[in-house]
Design a protein that fits this description.
The protein is an alpha/beta fold. The chain has 3 domains: 18-123, Probable tRNA modification gtpase trme, domain 1 (Gyrase A, domain 2, 2-Layer Sandwich), CATH 3.30.1360.120; 144-226 and 401-459, Four Helix Bundle (Hemerythrin (Met), subunit A); 232-393, P-loop containing nucleotide triphosphate hydrolases (Rossmann fold, 3-Layer(aba) Sandwich). The chain is 45% helix and 17% strand. It has 14 helices and 13 strands. It has helices at residues 40-46, 105-117, 127-134, 140-150, 155-165, 168-192, 202-231, 245-253, 296-311, 327-340, 376-393, 402-423, 428-446, 452-459, and strands spanning 18-21, 28-36, 48-49, 63-70, 76-85, 96-103, 121-122, 233-239, 271-277, 280-286, 314-320, 344-349, 366-367. The protein has a 7-stranded mixed beta sheet. Strands 9-10-8-11-12-13 form a 6-stranded mixed beta sheet, with helices on both faces. α6 (168-192) packs antiparallel against α7 (202-231). It is flat, with a radius of gyration of 30 Å.
């Protein structure tokens, strides 16, 4: 007979026991399931068996127990380890049990279904982390740092996400909030003693707001460049038809992703693939060859090549060492060099064919062979050097997501509105109103004051099980 947790007792959604698999789907050695909520121990007691007929609910907190998951009939589903943690000293702040089982999809699904039969429900995206925020274990920016940490594409993103999880951004926001609270206190004091001409705090308030605005503007300067840290580096291979772009693309990937033929116009759309190199994530983009054509599909591909050049952080401008560039192609190459020179590396291909057309060799270009591997390592070093320059320009104290950045922009506008009001001697009552609104921007960031809709939008970006 199935057990239903706390029959007759209506639990709030944030108290209900939730379960999900924390590890990626697919077969493997070990999977980890997490169950959290007020009835976690009771639920697992009903679906488990321990040696010596012991019961889960009788075991000490923060211990590991060996045992089995069993179904309603007592049939063994899997041999597992139970990690028992009673709240509030848990990630969610609630009673939590993590189950380490064999990573077979049928086993995982069977365990989840047994837990659901006995009173649990399937967790929503990010619901464990959301409970951690609601129970005061972490704030919202720390929660977002967890998601950034999981999806970090570079070593630098990993480092900054970890720092933000440990409270670096939260501490900075706390300092800003304190400055705004001090400014509010001074504004209200000025309003209280409005008849005392000597008791005005305009300059002190202006200084506090100026300090906050300076910090925000410093972060704004690097936001666009920070996307290199967050998303990795986008490298587009651009060049004439049959210049060897696809061969070079495959060589850099160390696998065949693009079709290579001697027929002009084989690549008609951008092909993307990602690799990790030297602590960074490269997105390589093979593009359609640049030439005049009457083929509508190929023409669209060429248009996309120009779009990819614009989107790229680095352009490998590829030319064929064997062939003379036509006038139209020279014009395109010149246009690209003039527009994007700072992010271009000129690459001459087909060195192994032992012929050169010198009139199109760009200064500081590199000659390679995708067939023999000649200078490929040197090209990779050139790319890495350019990446280091990009990341150096992107350095910032914090790695903000769009939600955080947009709220800071709103805060900046609000403070820029208050500053002239102080200089124009507008009533302090109105200034206090706007300062309170500015403080609410900080509270939206940290989660102290955020709508349920806003909170749900944040955790919708998380995976189930986190």
């Amino acid at each position: 007979m199935s057990f239903v947790a706390r029959p007759g007792v209506l639990l709030s959604q944030d108290q209900e026991s939730i379960i999900a698999c924390c590890t990626p789907q697919g077969s493997g050695a070990i999977a980890l399931l997490r169950l959290s909520g007020v009835d976690s121990f009771e639920i697992v007691t009903h679906i488990s068996k321990l040696p010596g007929n012991k019961k889960i609910y009788q075991q000490k907190t923060h211990t590991i127990q060996y045992g089995w998951i069993v179904d309603t009939n007592g049939t063994t589903i899997d041999q597992v380890l139970f990690f028992l943690m009673r709240g509030p000293k848990t990630f969610t702040g609630q009673d939590t049990i993590e189950i380490s089982c064999h990573n077979n999809p049928f086993i995982i699904e069977a365990i989840i279904q047994e837990a659901i039969k006995n009173g649990a429900r399937l967790a929503q995206n990010g619901e464990f982390t959301k409970r951690s925020v609601l129970n005061g274990k972490i704030d919202l920016v720390q929660a977002e740092a967890i998601n950034e940490l999981i999806h970090a594409h570079t070593q630098q993103a990993l480092k900054q996400s970890l720092a933000q999880l440990e409270g670096s951004l939260s501490g900075w926001l706390h300092t800003i909030e304190n400055n705004l609270i001090k400014a509010l206190a001074l504004s209200e004091a000025s309003f209280e003693f409005i008849d005392e001409e000597d008791l005005t705090f305009e300059n002190q308030i202006l200084q506090l707001l100026s300090d906050v605005l300076t910090h925000i503007k410093d972060i704004k300067k690097t936001f666009d460049q920070q996307q290199h840290i967050r998303n990795g580096i986008r490298i587009a291979l651009i060049g004439a038809v049959n210049a060897g772009k696809s061969s070079l693309f495959n060589t850099l990937l160390s696998q065949e992703r693009a079709i290579v033929t001697n027929i002009a116009g084989t690549t008609r759309d951008a092909i993307e693939a990602g690799i990790y190199r030297s602590g960074n994530y490269w997105t390589l983009v093979d593009t359609a060859g640049l030439r005049q054509t009457d083929d509508v599909v190929e023409e669209l591909g060429i248009k996309k090549s120009f779009e990819q050049a614009h989107l790229a952080d680095i352009i490998l401008l590829v030319s064929d060492s064997l062939s003379q560039l036509y006038t139209e192609q020279k014009k395109i190459y010149t246009e690209l060099l003039e527009k994007y020179r700072s992010k271009i590396i000129c690459v001459n291909t087909k060195y192994d064919m032992q012929k050169y057309i010198n009139d199109k060799k760009e200064e500081h270009s590199i000659t390679v062979s995708s067939k023999t591997g000649h200078n490929i390592t040197l090209l990779e070093q050139k790319i890495e050097k350019k990446i280091m320059q990009l990341l150096k320009r992107s350095e910032s104290s914090f790695l903000l997501n769009k939600r955080q950045f947009n709220i800071l922009l709103g805060l900046e506008k609000k403070l820029e509105k208050i500053t002239p009001m102080l200089k124009e001697n507008i009533q302090y009552e109105l200034i206090s109103y706007h300062l309170n609104d500015a403080i609410s921007h900080i509270n939206q960031l940290t989660g102290k004051s955020i709508s349920e809709k806003g909170m749900d939008a944040v955790f919708r970006e998380f995976c189930v099980g986190k």
